[in-house]
Amino acid sequence: MKKISFLFTVIIFILSGNRASAQTELQSATLQQGDKTSIYYGKDAFISAFNAVTGVTDVITLSSGTFNSPTFNKACTVYGAGCETDESKGIYSTNVGEITIQHGTEVNGEGETVNKTNDLDGIHIEGIVFTESVNIGEYGKPVTLKNLTLKRCKFYGSLNTVQDAWCISDVNIINCIIGNINTDLTNNIAIYNSIINRLYGYHNDNKLLIKNCILFDYDNPCVTTYKDNIILDSYAWGSDAFKASFFEKNIFRYGDALNNVSYSNAKNNWTGKNDIAIFGEEIGNEYDPSKTYAIKAEAAGTYIGTDGTPVGIYGGLYPFTKTPSNPQIISKEIDVKSTLDGKLKVSIKVEAQK
């Protein structure tokens, strides 16, 4: 990941005699389709922009604010303004309610209404707070999709890959803050550098990778490969799925965390490490936005993961950040007086993360 920071100066012409006026913030959604740009306003702006999407290369950029949710039945890229508000930096989140990713329909040659095919491949969603559940598929209505990316989002509700969703594959969840995630009946899901309050799944033969994450709690988890994580759950699961999971270079808060895992499935882990030994402070049992979750400096050289980078959310391929990939204004300076010829100097610093 590479951080991009740049500074640019805008010269604004001020008409003499103008007075500053209060401006009301209004939600906006900008749809980019090649060289064509369309802008929609209001709480339904996301719905209007999404309904106008015609292909997977279309990009929707949402302002901060709260938006009503579209029926998510086609692939595109969606960027929000960020997943957490930080008033000290002038950053305000984009908030969206419940989303269900479900195929669109069409009428076939025989006059039957059927699901479209390949219409959900390549979805990319980034920089959004989901205040309710995000559902990939619906019960009794399986979806077939691949190459789904959820990046730098916060999920207050559950992130659900629902039953009958066997054809969900190649899903990457990166730099997210997750309340609950259900990985039931899925294939090839990877969660990188994320903070997970609770993980659960009730079938044994999933293919799930969790790498460089903070995991507070797992509830009867499915077969999973855990690498380079910090795992804080106090329970040593005895299910077949947990016994068949693989653990390498993870830090565990509790000493008996791997008691029910076969020796061959546990490699070079650290158990019985309290919060002070790991973080240098108590971090509790659920996500706290005031915490950084960085391993303390004195221990950084001890807890090295499978790829030679630190264990936890700041190591691996995608060191943790909440800054979306699309450029964000992080500071601005505005001269208090205009020049004699009516110009006002504005300096704006913009940052983006790859």
Automatic annotation (TrEMBL):
Q: Which domain of life is it from?
A: Bacteria
InterPro entries according to UniProt:
Pectin_lyase_fold/virulence
Signal sequence segment: 1-22
Key words, A-Z = Signal
Q: What is this protein called?
A: Right-handed parallel beta-helix repeat-containing protein
Give the organism the record lists: Bacteroides cellulosilyticus
